[in-house]
C-alpha cells in the first residue's frame, strides 16, 4: 500500500524495532526514527580500506515484522559520500532477528566505523493484505553479531524399497515412492546383476535417485 510514515512506525514499535529511539544524534550522525524510515546502528567496530574492502556486520536493533509489513535496507547518505555502501536487501514479512549488513568500501583511505555509529536506513512498506506465506526460512530468529551466508542443500529423497519378491531368475523390489523397480537377475552359474526399471526405461549401474514420485 505504501511506505510507512514516522507515526505508523512508532505505532508498531517497540515490537517492530527493539530498542526503539526517536531521532537522535550519535558521532555526528542521526539514528532512530525519521520522516519515513528508521536509521539503525552498527554493533561492531570496523576498519575498512584498500586491504579490506568488504565486511559483514550486525545491527544493534532487533526486528519483528508482522505478516503485512516488509522492510528494505538502504544506504545512509553520510556514509555513501565517504565511499561506504550497504548491500540493499529486503526483509520479508514475518521475519524477525538482528540484521546482518553487507558493507563494501570503495575509498582509498582507511575508514573507521565505531560500534554504535548510525549505519543504514530501514524503510517499511505495508502490503495490501497480510501474506499467507510469512517468512519461515533459514535466517529466522537471526542472532546478534554478523551471520555468514547459509546455503540450502537440495532435499535427497531415499528409496523406500518393498520386501523382495523372488523367483528362480529374479529378485524384485519396488520403491513405494517413485514406483521404480530394482531387479536383480540370477543366471545359473553366473554373477547376479541389477537393473532399475520405471516407465519403460531401463538402467544399469548406480542406483538412480528417487524423485518422490514426481513423475508417477
Can you give a write-up of this model?
This protein starts with a strand and ends in a 12-residue tail after the last strand. The protein is mainly beta and 216 residues long. The longest helix has 7 residues, at 6-12. The protein contains 2 helices and 18 strands. The strands form 4 sheets. Strands 1, 3, 4, 5, 8, 10 and 13 form a 7-stranded antiparallel sheet that branches. It has a 5-stranded antiparallel sheet with strand order 14-15-16-17-18, with no helix packed on it. 5% of the residues lie in helices and 39% in strands. It folds into 2 domains: 2-126, Deoxyuridine 5'-Triphosphate Nucleotidohydrolase, Chain A; 154-216, no CATH class.
Brief characterization of the structure:
The chain has 216 residues and is mostly beta strands. It has helices spanning 6-12, 77-80, and strands spanning 2-3, 17-18, 24-26, 29-33, 38-41, 46-48, 54-64, 69-74, 84-86, 90-91, 96-105, 111-113, 118-126, 165-166, 170-174, 181-185, 193-198, 201-204. It is elongated and about 90 Å long.
Which helices and strands appear, and what pairs or packs with what?
Elements (H helix, E strand, L loop, with lengths): L1 E2 L2 H7 L4 E2 L5 E3 L2 E5 L4 E4 L4 E3 L5 E11 L4 E6 L2 H4 L3 E3 L3 E2 L4 E10 L5 E3 L4 E9 L38 E2 L3 E5 L6 E5 L7 E6 L2 E4 L12
Antiparallel strand pairs: 1-13, 2-7, 3-4, 4-5, 5-13, 6-12, 7-11, 8-10, 8-13, 9-11, 14-15, 15-16, 16-17, 17-18
Amino acid at each position: 500500500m505504501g511506505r510507512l510514515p514516522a507515526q505508523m512506525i512508532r505505532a508498531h514499535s517497540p515490537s517492530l524495532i527493539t530498542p526503539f529511539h526517536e531521532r537522535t544524534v550519535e558521532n555526528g550522525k542521526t539514528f532512530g526514527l525519521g520522516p519515513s524510515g528508521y536509521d539503525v546502528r552498527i554493533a561492531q567496530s570496523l576498519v575498512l580500506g584498500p586491504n579490506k574492502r568488504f565486511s559483514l556486520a550486525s545491527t544493534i536493533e532487533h526486528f519483528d515484522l508482522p505478516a503485512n509489513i516488509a522492510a528494505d535496507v538502504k544506504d545512509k547518505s553520510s556514509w555513501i559520500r565517504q565511499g561506504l555502501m550497504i548491500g540493499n536487501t529486503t526483509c520479508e514479512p514475518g521475519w524477525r532477528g538482528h540484521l546482518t549488513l553487507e558493507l563494501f568500501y570503495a575509498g582509498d583511505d582507511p575508514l573507521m566505523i565505531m560500534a554504535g555509529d548510525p549505519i543504514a536506513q530501514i524503510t517499511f512498506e505495508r502490503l495490501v493484505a497480510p501474506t499467507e506465506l510469512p517468512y519461515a526460512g533459514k535466517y529466522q530468529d537471526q542472532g546478534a553479531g554478523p551471520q555468514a551466508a547459509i546455503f540450502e542443500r537440495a532435499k535427497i529423497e531415499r528409496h523406500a524399497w518393498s520386501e523382495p519378491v523372488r523367483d528362480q531368475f529374479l529378485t524384485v523390489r519396488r520403491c513405494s515412492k517413485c514406483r521404480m523397480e530394482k531387479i536383480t537377475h540370477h543366471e545359473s552359474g553366473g554373477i547376479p546383476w541389477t537393473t532399475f526399471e520405471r516407465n519403460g526405461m531401463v538402467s544399469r549401474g548406480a542406483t538412480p535417485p528417487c524423485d518422490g514420485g514426481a513423475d508417477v
